[in-house]
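Per reviewer request, we include the raw input and output of the structure prediction for the construct analysed in the revised manuscript.
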Amino acid sequence: MNKLSCVLMKMKRGLSETCYMFFKVLANPTRLAILETLRGKPKSVTEIATDLKQEQSMISHNLSALERCRFISSERREKQRLYSLNSETIEPLFKLFKYHYEKYCPTQGRCLTEEGLRQMRKKQASDRLNVTHG
């Protein structure tokens, strides 16, 4: 194996690990709910816990993970810490999720069964033929 191949393998592995950690942090429903509630405005841990009807300790634990990955930031104001969304990264993700959901999730977020997937592909193929020959 030449030197370039070794470098490329390390880069790919590094990116895979980064992607894994990125999605691992976002794969938690509480963390996603926190991100959604912060879309409106910065909030304290108490406000987030109240909004999500969860224990403050659970929210704090999940805020730490989100902050480590820089999905959110915090700033101290008087006696409390306010958490804000990293809009530069997270808003485009929410737009992408919404687009994907509206275009590719005909079952309102539930995954298609194998049969459902076959039927959807068949319909798409039929629609393409109708457009081409219609």
